[in-house]
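A quick aside before the break. I want you to see a complete sequence-to-structure record at least once, exactly as it would be stored in a machine-readable document. Don't worry about memorizing anything.
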Amino acid sequence: MPTSVAARDRFYREGKQPYSVRLGDKWVQYQRLEPLNQPIAQVGAALLALEQKDADARDKIGTAIITLAENLVSQTYLSGLADFLNATTHIERSGEAFLTRIASGMVPASSLLRTATQQIDPTIRKPTTPLERLEAPLPGLSQNVPPRLTAFGQEAQRQTTTWFPIGISKARQDEVDAELERVGVEVGFVGDTIQKKDLTREQQQRYQTLAGQGTYKALQVLFRSEGYRQFGDANKRKRIAAVVEAARQTARNAIIRQQAEAGKAGLELPAPAQPTPPTEDALQRYEDWKRRQDITPKVPVGAR
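That is the input. The structure line, written in tokens, reads:
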């Protein structure tokens, strides 16, 4: 899957899965299709490396080796080893999650409960505390954990059938994602601060929801406009960046107003933009336009 967070988000929004092949309008994972798994993975790793046009031979070989290694450790029977290696390499980031996984594995029928939860609650959750990691795979408790949001502020949904051993998802790319891919732009996530002040978890979720949904609607309007089609790709990328920033500013203002209504100080609405004074050239064009209007013959109402 893509390494950048923004590209990875679009990857999953479009129904894609890592280590998959596209058959018609479906993405089918080949990780459990032994003995075809490794040969297909080798071809995929080679093609991925060749796509790196600016990389030298050493980097391309490194990419292929890393891709094959990730495919190997992602096998179900090695997932515990992969989690352990991540925990020992990135203790602060992955250590707690690894210990929580061990604890959740001690729950009787934990695998069956996890499958049942995914059937009942298709929303992908984003646990951040040990308690939430224990609740996320349990039926009736998973809803206590906040959902994972996409860059467009929508709750991420599980696309594959949980009880089927092979992951199959429907390929879906709407007009917005298709155009973003064509011009080479990725819409990322908002930050967790506003005006250099940390947001609470609830504020950050609301910030992402408002900014993401506002961005998506604005991009729909932009991409369908006649003026946008007349731009070159460079100007299109600038217009996209302006739309994203405008949507985020609107979301920030909403968060600030909400905090003010709650009687909490700390954030201030930005000052309204001051109008730019007209240039001498613009004033001259305006005077010329007025002069032309004055000499235009006036036709009485009703005259033919």
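Two observations worth writing down. Residues 17-31+74-166 form one domain. The first strand starts at residue 20 and ends at 23. We'll return to this after the break.
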